[in-house]
Amino acid sequence: MTDRKNQKKNGGGLLRYVVIDLETTGNSPAKSGKIIEIGMVVIENEEIKETKTTLLNPNQPIPPFISNLTGIHNEEVKDAPLFIDKAEKIIRILQDSYIIAHNANFDVGFLNMELAANGYPELKNPVLDTVELSRILFPTISSYKLSHLAEHFELHHDDPHRALSDAYVTAKLFFKLKEKLDHLPYETLYKLKNLEEKLQSDLAVILDNRLEELAFREHPDNQIKHYQGLAFRMSEKETKALSEIDKSFGEYLDNIYQEQGALSKAFSSYEPREGQRQMSETIYDAFSAKKHAFIEAGTGTGKSLAYLLPAVYQAITNKERLIISTYTTQLQSQLLEEEIPLLKKVIDIPLRVALMKGKNHYLNLEKFLYELDYGSKDNYDFVLTKAILLVWITETETGDIDEIQLPAGGYIFFQKVSADVEKTINPKSPWFHHSYYQLARRRAQKADIIITNHALLCTDMFNDYAFLPGYQKVIIDEAHHFEETASHHYGLKLDYIQMQFTCNYLGTADEDKQFNAVLKATDMSQKEELIDKWNAAIKEAKYDIDELFHLIERFVRAQQKNDKATSDLGRVQYRIKPETYQQDTWLLAEDIAARLRMHFRKLLDVLSRLVDEYSLDIGDEKQFLEDIGQMQDVLEKYIDDLKVMFQEQNEVELIKWIEVDLKGKHHSVFLYSEPSNIAPILADDFFSKKESVIFTSATLTMGSSFKFIKERLGVSEQDLLTEQIASPFHYDKQVQLLIPTDFPNIRYGNIDDFVYAVCEAILSLAEVTSGRMLVLFTSYDMLRKANDLLKEMITEQQYVIIAQGVTSGSRSRLKKNFQSYDQAILLGTSSFWEGVDIPGEDLSALVMVRLPFQPPNHPVFEAKSHQLKEDGRNPFMDLSLPQAVIKFKQGFGRLIRSSNDRGIVFICDGRIKTAKYGKYFLESIPEVPVHYEATRHLMSHAENWFHQQ
Q1: Is 298 annotated as a binding residue?
Q2: 304 annotated ligand-binding residue
Q3: What distance in Å separates the CA atoms of residue 873 and residue 878, rounded to the nearest whole number?
Q4: 376 a known binding residue?
Q5: Domains of the chain
Q6: Where does motif DEAH box map (predicted)?
Q7: Mind listing the pLDDT tens digit for each residue in 833-870?
């Protein structure tokens, strides 16, 4: 990189660019990969001047999957020239030019290795990588694959995975990138220039030229603020106050829902849904009676609009603020970006809606500026993240990090610059008015409806309602997650990696870390005593963290029997029981934890003395106090959490457990706790304090009863309304449910035979549906076995297998990959049983491998079962079965997402027909045709039904 940078700096204002793209036989020339096609597009004076392309003979067979991908076959290249025949011409075309490529490391690296292998010197041209530049300049785009960018910018892509077509589209993309660069403010470009040396793209000359042009011009966008060398967008748009509604609630709904109402005028394809209005009316009744409500609304009800309409009516007529809470921040954004605009279109009334998330979601501009000017520039992910954020702040009006995609290490950097570091902020400081978090709070204070998430709602609840503006009525969507979220937020998590990360982040006095930065800000003459105390405590803390987690890992290994519980990620789980506290190893762990708390108290003492005893340079005081406060918060939380985890008696009865990845080292150890029963806590801290809490979800009942969810959440019967609303979809025509009679019985130890039968059924069904299949597992081990077996059973060109925990990427990334292939099979564990929306023909088959019972030795389930037994109740009927039925309903709901969807559900678990409790599962879903036959008959039926018109 250094040679290229020096070359570029001496190169003057080059205006000639050559875009290249290669098709190759493999990913690396070091592993016998060869170029089979090169495409080149020459750009001069910002115009495409010429294009060049040639096939090359690789002197080896082209792998079948490469031929399938590119359409280039062995016959086409057998008479093509060798690379050495074209090398000089390629070098000549590239002379005195920038090289542009989409993922330049691959194309330029591959080309250089081919040149070196043929006796030519490597290219030293300045390089521009359009993947990197797209990430920086268009940070809100969800994918940076060339095909996705082409679609986003409406660039015509004739022949994807052919070199010239890809190079041509990359050239068009470069014009978009250059245009965006030319519209950035001077300050942004200047800060980018300071980061440029560590980027992969050689931007210095381009940035210098543009900075020279902008030196004496003002940026035309008056929404861009300029402060202390930073350019950012921040505007407080004032929405008019709500007007009056001079209609009864019934008339209000008539004007919206009836045949010639607002919905039918807004949407030509609108069809009235009785259940939607029914839901709106039930919510209004609950609000009016100041009661809580459970509403189960089947898929396709349109529940978002159904609950937003009474929320708006209540807010306007009573002039009161309402909260709407969703399970994830993604669902929050979906409500704001899709449902609220639809609502405004329908009601045509000014409405103030605000999105509110936790502090850790918002960028702190002051800390970001500090990191830009004084932070480390060594880590590429950090530098790339800084560049992304620099551009993003010229566009965002929220500062909410969920708007963009950061590189893996970028989220670690973001922790340093999020609003979470704002322990206190002086309202008189200019940064107070340039704080995205404070802006979000101001918007929330003025809002009629606040959209938040369960996590922040619970954080607010368990912190004396200090985070959200006051409210008395709340609608909780995806409510089947609320108990779990509340339990997690009342509980805690400790792990080796995070604790060691904290100690490394704080650092010793002689390391360039947080404590050193605090020391530099002080104006004291004698630091030796405090430095020695700090250094000793940090080193001892790191040693004891290592000892503690190593001991716990050995302890769990020693405790494991054949019936060990495992998590979705394959970690072994062990519940800390009353007898655990008497075991010698655990007593030793308690001693180490007590020592660790002592080390952290010593660190707190040093920080307190720094604040109390030493004077400061007044200019650094605010930053100093913020840094100290942040360090104190972290250390105090560790002291409290260690006490809770290793102390047998607690105020609230807690379930405590350990998770260990036995394939990893002792750093793969996690400690958890949560209340054994959150219901009394919610009853006291939530339901008794709020007038009306509305719970809604597609899955709240078992056997048409809300009994399970009512008990788990602690809602009393006299304060409650309930309603079940059926889905408007025609499941009897849209779905076929298939259950085989001839699968091996897993109860008799035939796990391998069972997995083999599952894989055979998956491939047989995939032949019918052309892949497009989601396979849901309850066990990560079984998923892994099935993934390995499927890959043995198929050829590469048949189906793409994407497996959670095996294929890298987040759940949303795996889903996108699945949708991008014509014939793909997606394997997922528990998190894929819900919240995955794959509408239309992208998903045509759903396979449930086992009924989703929680393993009986799962720590939380085991503890709650034990409690139910002590109360004289049946843990299976009162806990295990309801949980499994609700999860089964969620899994079933993945298939049909619109009235036009059709698909097959294949359930490998015969218990749904043979066990007495099986009827609860079948009765929980809409009535569909059920076929219970030998697998070959089921496949024949699937073939006939699926291909009916």
Answers
A1: yes
A2: yes
A3: 7
A4: no
A5: 2-184 (3.30.420.10), 492-675 (no CATH), 731-946 (3.40.50.300)
A6: 477-480
A7: 886 777 667 788 999 999 999 888 888 888 999 889 99
